[in-house]
Write a structure and sequence with these properties.
Layout: H1 7-13, E1 44-49, H2 60-72, E2 76-83, E3 87-94, H3 102-116, E4 130-133, H4 137-148, H5 150-153, E5 166-168
Antiparallel strand pairs: 1-3, 1-4, 2-3, 2-5
Helix pairs in contact: 2-3
Amino acid sequence: MSAGGNNEDRRKHAPPEGPASAGPYRRHPIHLPPLGNRDRAIIIFVTVCTAGRRRILDWPRSHEVIIVSWRAAESWLVGRYVILPDHVHFFCAPNDFDPPPLERWMQFWKSTVSRNLGEPAGTVWQRHFWDRQLRRGESYDGKWEYVRKNPVRHGLVSKPEDWPYQGVLNELRW
């Protein structure tokens, strides 16, 4: 066997083949810079998960620490959000005309949350996150409906308004 491993090992770790796999193979999401437009707001929908999908976020202390961290990381503003046991959905927008890249802002508040929860670095959050820039006001409203119903879909409450770990920090206007 060669130093690079045998063909069977390579096939196990290769990207899927066929039409469904068209395009580049990625192990993590790509983060495109927000596209500005003079007459349209920039609003980004973000999902971030805990490392190993640990169920550590659905208690008052976590909620408080996340909110305080978002407020301290003021270069981006968080609008509507829902914090679930193992992941967070939220909408954010740049707070000025030249914000730091979303990845850097995410890294800042995630590390602040970890530190304030007393957890070692890298044990609270997955390294990567998912983001999508919204294109229309209807997208914002539609995504919000999906997000606020998440606790019901996960069997945590019977009505979305009963979930205590959600809210609006800033009104993000389209």
